């Protein structure tokens, strides 16, 4: 069996082309979607990640706002910056790049974000609204990585209606939030959530039509755990130093042998990662469209 590759780079390129048109339409109406990042400190990985987000947002015509503070910034200084972005009409959505320095109360900072400008879609208010809303259209930002997983499947012609999805992992970014999206009536999937504390995880995985692997444990999902023809979304990331080159190497949660059993598989890297950035920008463009509608 040769698995169909769920190419996140190709799907995200299509989304960005669509966003370019939506941004152009907004500009014709006098609104330029503004996306901002808050970076505290000079972590090289965070700087690279933030820079990539800004290059991609500028490429679709968005206004890119970069706000930085030194690593020794106080809680008050960080919260003042959050307040400024909340009040800035040119900023329609933003993220606070994590991790923050250890002396900063991360929860207090994230909860201070205006829910309407929550580009990640993980603000407690927005997650709460998602919990409460199963049937109606949603007019608040959605968690961008779970949304990226679903978009990647749908844009490759995969129908989730009635499918059994097993989610591996319980982190806020995807594990705890993706079930809220998958069980909405418009998608209509059945969800089982397992994690590293689950006894005999394999018994659940072997029942799955779709496996979303997001535990962050290298090669956790083995070939014998996969139902033939299942779709596997490899989201988890483990970084190890290559002893020969001294460079970091990225591993997913899925053992390479499992790909031989699956019907669909997203590569890692190159699968869900590009989709997350595309849906982050989508959240901001949608916020700009809502701001125009409510003006």
Largest sheet: 6 strands, parallel
The total count of helices amounts to 9
Order of helices and strands: EHEHEHEHHHEHEHEEEEEH
Query: What is the CATH third-level topology name of the largest domain?
Result: Rossmann fold
CATH homology superfamily of the largest domain = NAD(P)-binding Rossmann-like Domain
- Low-pLDDT runs of 5+ residues are none
- Tell me the count of domains: 2
CATH architecture of the largest domain: 3-Layer(aba) Sandwich
Q: What structural class do helix, strand and pairing data support? A: alpha/beta
CATH class of the largest domain: Alpha Beta
| Beta-strand content estimate | 15-25%
State the distance separating the first and last CA atoms.
Answer: 54 Å
How are the SSEs placed, and which strands pair?
Blueprint: E1 4-5, H1 8-28, E2 34-40, H2 44-59, E3 63-69, H3 75-87, E4 93-96, H4 106-112, H5 124-132, H6 144-154, E5 164-168, H7 178-182, E6 190-194, H8 201-205, E7 210-213, E8 231-234, E9 238-241, E10 248-251, E11 264-266, H9 272-294
Helix pairs in contact: 1-9, 6-9
Please sum up the structure shown.
Helices cover 37% and strands 17% of the residues.
Q: What does this protein structure show overall?
A:
Helix 6 (144-154) crosses helix 9. The chain has a six-stranded parallel sheet. The protein has a three-stranded parallel sheet with strand order 3-2-4, with helices on both faces. A two-stranded antiparallel sheet has the order 9-10. It is built from nine helices and eleven strands. With 295 residues, the chain is α/β, with parallel strands linked by helices. The mean pLDDT is 95. It has two domains: 30-114, 3-Layer(aba) Sandwich (Rossmann fold), CATH 3.40.50; 144-273, Rossmann fold (3-Layer(aba) Sandwich).
């Amino acid at each position: 069996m040769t698995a169909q590759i769920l190419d996140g780079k190709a799907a995200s390129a299509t989304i960005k082309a669509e966003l370019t048109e939506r941004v152009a339409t907004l500009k014709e109406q006098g609104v330029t979607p503004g996306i901002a990042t808050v970076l505290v400190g000079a972590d090289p990985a965070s700087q690279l990640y933030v820079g990539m987000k800004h290059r991609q947002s500028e490429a679709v015509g968005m206004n890119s706002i970069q706000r930085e503070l030194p690593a020794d910034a106080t809680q008050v200084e960080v919260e003042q910056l959050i307040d400024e972005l909340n009040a800035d009409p040119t900023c329609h959505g933003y993220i606070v790049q994590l991790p923050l320095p250890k002396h900063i109360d991360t929860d207090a900072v994230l909860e201070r974000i205006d829910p309407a400008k929550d580009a990640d879609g993980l603000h407690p208010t927005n997650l709460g609204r998602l919990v409460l809303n199963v049937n109606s259209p949603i007019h608040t930002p959605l968690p961008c990585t779970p949304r990226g997983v679903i978009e990647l499947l749908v844009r490759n012609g995969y129908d989730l209606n009635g499918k059994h999805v097993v989610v591996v992992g319980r982190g806020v970014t995807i594990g705890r939030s993706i079930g809220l999206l998958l069980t909405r009536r418009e998608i209509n999937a059945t969800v089982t959530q397992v994690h590293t504390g689950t006894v005999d995880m394999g018994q659940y995985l072997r029942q799955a039509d779709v496996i979303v692997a997001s535990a962050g444990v290298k090669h956790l999902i083995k070939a014998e755990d996969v139902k033939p023809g299942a779709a596997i979304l490899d989201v988890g990331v483990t970084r190890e130093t290559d002893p020969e080159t001294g460079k970091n190497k990225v591993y997913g949660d899925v053992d390479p042998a499992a790909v031989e059993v699956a019907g669909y598989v997203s590569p890692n890297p190159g699968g869900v990662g590009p989709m997350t950035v595309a849906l982050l920008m989508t959240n901001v463009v949608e916020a700009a469209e809502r701001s125009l509608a409510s003006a």
